[in-house]
Amino acid sequence: xxxxxxxxxxxxxxxxxxxxxxxxxxxxxxxxxxxxxxxxxxxxxxxxxxxxxxxxxxxxxxxxxxxxxxxxxxxxxxxxxxxxxxxxxxxxxxxxxxxxxxxxxxxxxxxxxxxxxxxxxxxxxxxxxxxxxxxxxxxxxxxxxxxxxxxxxxxxxxxxxxxxxxxxxxxxxxxxxxxxxxxxxxxxxxxxxxxxxxxxxxxxxxxxxxxxxxxxxxxxxx
Amino acid sequence: xxxxxxxxxxxxxxxxxxxxxxxxxxxxxxxxxxxxxxxxxxxxxxxxxxxxxxxxxxxxxxxxxxxxxxxxxxxxxxxxxxxxxxxxxxxxxxxxxxxxxxxxxxxxxxxxxxxxxxxxxxxxxxxxxxxxxxxxxxxxxxxxxxxxxxxxxxxxxxxxxxxxxxxxxxxxxxxxxxxxxxxxxxxxxxxxxxxxxxxxxxxxxxxxxxxxxxxxxxxxxxxxxxxxxxxxxxxxxxxxxxxxxxxxxx
Lengths: 222, 250
Hints:
A: about 220 residues
C-alpha cells in the first residue's frame, strides 16, 4: 500500500511538474466549449437543447488529448522495463498511472464541464447531473483510451491514430452520459443510467488494466 | 489425445495450409457461386412480393447476408486473435492480416445496401438508429485494426492487432442487442435461431441459401488472400520457392 501511494505521488508530481501540459486538456476543453456558440449562433433555446451532447463530445476530445503519449516516454526511458521487472503486478501499476493522469489532467475538465453547460444556459441542477455523468464517465474513457495509448506507445505518429482506435470504444459512455443529462432535463428519473455508468466504470477498473498490461508486454517485446 | 489434436497442429503449418487450402479454396468458391445463383434467382425472381415494401425488399438477399457476415467475420478474427495470443500460432496472424480487408469491405457493403434499402422504405438513406450506428462503428473498428497494423513494427503489430480485436469484440453484443435496447426505425432481426421466422418459407429459404453462399464466398476470398500472404511471408523457405516455381513459373 505504501508503495502504491509512493507510485501515485511520483506520477502526480511528474504530471504537475509541467503544469502547462497538465492543464492543456482543460484549456482545450474550454476553448472547444466556447467555439460551439460561436459556430451555432447565440440561439439560447438551441444551445440548451444540445449542451449535454456538446459538453460530452468536447470532454472526450480533451480525454484523447490527455492520453496522447501516455506511455511513450516510459517506453523510451526504460520505465516500462522497470515496471515489467518489478514484483508489483503490472495491471495495478497501470491503474495507478491512469488514476494519477485522471486527477492531474482530466479532473479539471470534470469541474469545468458543468460551468460550460451553465454558460450554454442549462439550469444548475441539470448541469450538476451532467457533472456527475462526467465524473462517472471520464475515468472509464481514460481507462479504455489508455489501452490505445499502450498499443501506440511504439508507433510512429500515434496521436492521430489514437482517436480512430479508441473513440469507437467510448461510444456507450457517450450515449449514456449525454443521454442521462438530456433525459434529466426532460424530467425523467436517471438513476438507472447513472447506475449503468457506474457499472461500466467498475467493470473497466477491474478488466481494462489487464488488457493494458498485455498491450505493454507486447510493445516492450516482453 | 495426441490423435485428436493432430489436425489442429497440422493447420498450424504453412505448407500444409497452402496445399490443403488450394482444395478448400476451389470447393468454397464453387459451392458459394452455385448457392448464390440458386439463392438469388429464387429470391429475386420467384419469391413472393412483400405486401408492405413491394419489390424493394428484395435487396434483403444481399443486405442480410453481408450484414451477418460483417459481424461473424469480426468475431472470427477476434477468435483468431485469441489463438495468436494464447498459442502463438503465426498462422492466425497471417489469417487476420489477410482477412481484415475482406471484413471491412463486407461491412461497407452492408452499410451501402442498407442505405439503398432505407431510401424507399424509410424515405431516407441514413438514420441515427442504434443498429446502423453500431454497424458504422464496426467499420471503424475494422479500419482502426488495419491502421494499427500499419503503424507498428512487424513483430509487435500482429499481437497488438489481436489484442485490439479481442477487446473490440465487446462491440458485437451491443450491435446484436441494440435493436431490443433502443428499438427505433430498424426492423427487428430477420432470422432467429430460436424462433420460427415471421416471413413465409418461400422468402426465408432463399435468404438462408444466400447467407450460406455469402459465407462460402467470404471463406474463398479470405483463404485466397491467406495463401498469398503465406507465400509473401515465407518466400525464402523451400516450400514457398517450390510452390512459386510450380504454380507461377518464378
